[in-house]
Design brief:
- The structure holds 2 protein chains of 2 kinds.
- By secondary structure, chain A is of the alpha+beta class.
- Chain A contains 4 helices and 10 strands, in the order ββααββββααββββ.
- In chain A, helix 1 packs antiparallel against helix 2.
- Chain B has one domain (27-170): 3-Layer(aba) Sandwich (Glutaredoxin).
- The relative contact order of chain B is 0.23.
- Classes of the chains: A alpha+beta, B alpha/beta.
């Protein structure tokens, strides 16, 4: 099999690696995320909203021979046993509408988000951000992943515990 | 040779994969598509020259969407540059579409990694959105009649023999 360009080892954060699937999480500080978007011309009003959020970048690679479904509606996020709020695309659309964010920035932001639904084909990578409120405490993620082109294959369940929203370390 | 047939169709997600083409003979990540008419692609390139995909028929087009902030895109672009001399003599046209970046960002990036490439600028990202790529980078192979015949998943090492032979085979 020809290699695809993917994420490099060693993985930059918590990961689950199986024969048929790799999932890597990368936690970034609000300042790191703000710097990324600021460098791409996002205005201050957008940067404020980004800084007030918690970004977790997800990288997935289907290394098996069957379709694996990324369907974030089937994923659960809990903190201290309670469901966690997540800022999805509709949330960001309303935020961007309220500040009249230019279309190019909306497009860039959209491409950096994890797709909500994807039939991940064999040898296909996917990546993007999940976004939560900035004051989110450590949380657990359960990824329920149907398999098979018709979603009728044996489902995969993966769990990440104690995922952290990174905060910038104050300089002394 | 055993042909493996792809029968997945996920509505608009995957542009409905074809059921007749032997996916097993294709390089990794190259997925056959059921001959869907290519969406409009009318943009100016980095030099300000207008381009319209509809006016460039009669040969295969390698239509590639990318952005400089995208890690897999950055890793893949030099590979596309290396591929160019290897497909010389075919009439495959390489059409690069930058998604929602400024001229300065594009010029700065390509000037270093792939100075021979002159991309089209989708400055607001709406043309890219109309093509519904599964992510960035994303490549489509459009036949001489203007129909998408293959979609390529993620970044690939285009200068590798499997991909070069595949592309040269298209143009025969």
């Amino acid at each position: 099999m020809m290699p695809a360009f993917g994420i490099d080892k060693p993985y930059p954060g918590p990961f689950i690696e199986r024969e048929d699937l790799l999932v890597v999480l990368r936690q970034r500080t609000p300042e790191q995320m703000a710097a990324f978007y600021e460098a791409r011309g996002f205005p201050g009003a957008a940067i404020e909203r980004i800084k007030a959020s918690c970004f977790v970048t997800v990288h997935m690679e289907n290394r098996g021979h069957d379709v694996i479904w990324l369907d974030t509606a089937l994923w659960t996020f809990t903190s201290k046993g309670k469901p966690l709020e997540r800022f999805d695309r509709s949330y960001w659309d309303s935020q961007w509408d309220s500040i009249k964010l230019r279309q190019a920035s909306r497009s860039t932001f959209g491409w950096t988000q994890l797709p909500a639904l994807r039939d991940l084909q064999p040898d296909e990578p996917v990546g993007g951000n999940l976004v939560f409120p900035g004051n989110t405490e450590r949380f657990d993620m359960t990824l329920n992943l149907p398999t098979g082109a018709d979603r009728q294959g044996k489902p995969i369940t993966l769990e990440f515990r104690d995922v952290e929203c990174l905060q910038e370390v104050e300089a002394e | 040779m055993t042909a493996r047939f792809v029968s997945s169709c996920a509505g608009l997600l995957l542009l409905c994969l074809a059921v007749q083409l032997p996916a097993g003979e294709l390089p990794a990540g190259v997925m056959p598509v059921a001959g869907i008419e290519a969406p409009p692609l009318q943009l100016d390139n980095l030099d300000g020259v207008a381009y319209d995909l509809a006016d460039s028929g009669g040969h295969w087009r390698f239509v590639h969407f990318w952005a400089s902030w995208c890690g897999p895109c950055r890793r893949e672009m030099p590979s596309i540059q290396k591929m160019l001399p290897l497909i010389e003599g075919t009439d495959i046209e390489v059409v690069l579409v930058n998604t929602a970046e400024t001229e300065d960002e594009v010029f700065t990036f390509l000037g270093i990694v792939a100075p021979d490439l002159v991309p089209l600028l989708d400055t607001d990202g709406l043309v890219t959105q109309a093509w519904q790529p599964r992510g960035l980078p994303s490549t489509y192979l459009v036949d001489p009649g203007g129909r998408i015949r293959y979609q390529v998943l993620g970044g690939r090492e285009w200068e590798k023999p499997a991909y070069v032979e595949f592309l040269r085979g298209l143009a025969r």
